[in-house]
């Protein structure tokens, strides 16, 4: 019996290329049948004439009627336009903020609002000064009233307590001083108390025969009008000097406290002149807060606060001038 045939060795590279492969190795079958067209695999006959050639997605656009685009010039550099700088705001806040009655610089840009606000404040201030100097003249020229207020010092200290209490309320309570009619009632009480104090102090300068108070009123009126006009037209911003005014006022307070125990007329005169300078600066400061257009300004709702500050400046300036003019007649 013949032995089974042993398969030959694998074909060489040349035999495989030429086609002389060993029949023991059958040709490799494709793993997957070739893909058929969709119409054949689904049983549909091909369309007559075959499939049309694909069309362009977008037809070419005609360029007629449009000028040829110009090339960007070589070497040109884009120059950004400078942007306008925003105006400085008050207290480091945004223009819409309102901090304790102070607002940003653009809050009073409307001229009609500004004029109405200024007019309202000065009308209130005029009424306050009319009442105050009316009381001063009454206490100064009517002998019976003058003797009464000089003998009853308790009423002076009572009016001083009312003055201090109402002043703290109006300064610290922003909502209260903006609410009508509470703000006008409080301002009226404040005005009457300070008017009584001013009239009582003026009654002790009667030795000059009436000239002392009239001279002091005239000087105070002239200084007030001059400082007001200067503050409105000057470019110097007094509203940015709040820190300096605070230090000046505190130093003057300590100086006056020490001067009480010296009983020196020269020292008292120096103190009075420094106080006159201080309240003149305060008058310029408060005037620019009212008029606006500076670093800080008052909100249009703060007409009571504006009138209160100007009223105190004018009255204290009058008392200081009265002490200087009538220093030898006390």
TrEMBL record:
This is Protein lifeguard 1-like isoform X2. PANTHER family: BAX INHIBITOR-RELATED, PROTEIN LIFEGUARD 1-LIKE. Residues 1-97 are annotated as: Disordered. The keyword Membrane applies. GO terms for cellular component: endoplasmic reticulum; Golgi apparatus; membrane. InterPro entries: Bax_inhibitor_1-related. Keywords: Membrane, Transmembrane, Transmembrane helix. The keyword Transmembrane helix applies. It comes from the Eukaryota. One of its GO terms (biological process) is negative regulation of apoptotic signaling pathway. It is a multi-pass membrane protein. Residues 24-36 have a biased composition (Pro residues). CDD domains: LFG_like. It is found in: Membrane. The chain crosses the membrane at residues 121-142, 154-172, 184-206, 212-232, 244-264, 270-291, 303-325. Residues 50-61, 71-88 have a biased composition (Low complexity). Belongs to the BI1 family. Pfam families: Bax1-I.
């Amino acid at each position: 019996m013949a032995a089974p045939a042993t398969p030959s060795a694998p074909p060489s590279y040349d035999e495989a290329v030429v086609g002389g492969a060993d029949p023991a190795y059958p040709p490799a079958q494709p793993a997957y049948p070739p893909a058929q067209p969709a119409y054949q695999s689904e049983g549909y006959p091909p369309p007559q004439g075959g499939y049309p050639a694909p069309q362009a997605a977008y037809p070419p656009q005609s360029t007629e009627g449009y000028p040829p685009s110009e090339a960007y010039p070589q070497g040109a550099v884009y120059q950004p336009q400078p942007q306008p700088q925003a105006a400085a705001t008050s207290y480091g806040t945004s223009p819409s903020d309102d901090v304790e009655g102070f607002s940003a610089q653009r809050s009073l840009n409307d001229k009609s609002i500004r004029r109405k606000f200024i007019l309202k404040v000065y009308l209130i201030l005029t009424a306050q000064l009319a009442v105050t100097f009316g009381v001063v003249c009454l206490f100064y020229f009517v002998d019976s009233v003058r003797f009464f207020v000089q003998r009853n010092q308790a009423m002076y200290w009572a009016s001083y307590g009312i003055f201090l209490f109402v002043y703290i309320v109006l300064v610290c309570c922003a909502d209260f001083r903006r609410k009508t009619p509470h703000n006008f009632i409080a301002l009226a009480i404040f005005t009457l108390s300070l008017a009584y104090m001013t009239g009582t102090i003026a009654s002790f300068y009667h030795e000059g025969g009436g000239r002392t108070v009239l001279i002091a009123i005239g000087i105070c009126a002239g200084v007030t009008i001059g400082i007001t006009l200067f503050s409105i037209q000057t470019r110097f911003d007094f509203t940015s000097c709040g820190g300096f005014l605070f230090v000046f006022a505190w130093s003057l307070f300590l100086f006056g406290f020490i001067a009480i125990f010296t009983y020196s007329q020269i020292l008292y005169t120096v103190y009075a002149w420094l106080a006159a300078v201080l309240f003149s600066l305060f008058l310029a400061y408060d005037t620019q807060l009212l008029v606006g257009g500076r670093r800080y300004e008052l909100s249009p709702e703060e007409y009571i606060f504006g009138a209160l500050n100007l009223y105190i400046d004018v009255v204290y300036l009058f008392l200081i001038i009265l002490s200087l003019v009538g220093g030898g007649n006390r």
